[in-house]
Design a protein that fits this description.
Layout (H helix, E strand, L loop, with lengths): L23 E2 H14 L1 H17 L5 E2 L5 E2 L6 H15 L3 H12 L2
Antiparallel strand pairs: 1-2, 2-3
């Protein structure tokens, strides 16, 4: 994400704490969970549990602003699909990229 303290993102201007300038993006969780689990499995589990609770609470939003309001698309399926790839990578002890690349290839058919 392009995060700037002054909120002057040249591509997507937004207030500090929102959208690309501090919003929490659920999709990114899938990318980082395997790396976090490798170093601290307990913390990765906490993140996954919090994500699941908040996905439902925020109606599967694209992102969550720092003030706790949901933003972007509602029912954003990548908000759960990509984190599930991360969890599957952890469970199967395989690189996240295996699952993400398989997903991309399936979309090209």
């Amino acid at each position: 994400m392009r995060n700037r303290k002054d909120g002057n993102d040249i591509f997507f201007p937004s207030e500090v704490g929102s959208y690309t300038n501090g919003g929490f993006w659920t999709v990114g969780t899938g990318w980082v969970l395997p790396a976090i689990a490798d170093q601290n499995p307990g913390f990765a589990l906490e993140i996954a549990e919090e994500l699941v609770a908040n996905l439902v609470k925020y109606e599967f939003r694209e992102y969550i602003n720092a003030d706790g309001t949901g933003g972007g698309a509602t029912g954003f399926l990548a908000a759960i699909a990509v984190p599930m790839m991360g969890l599957t990578a952890i469970i199967d002890n395989r690189p996240f990229s295996d699952f993400f690349l398989a997903f991309i290839k399936s979309m090209q058919k």
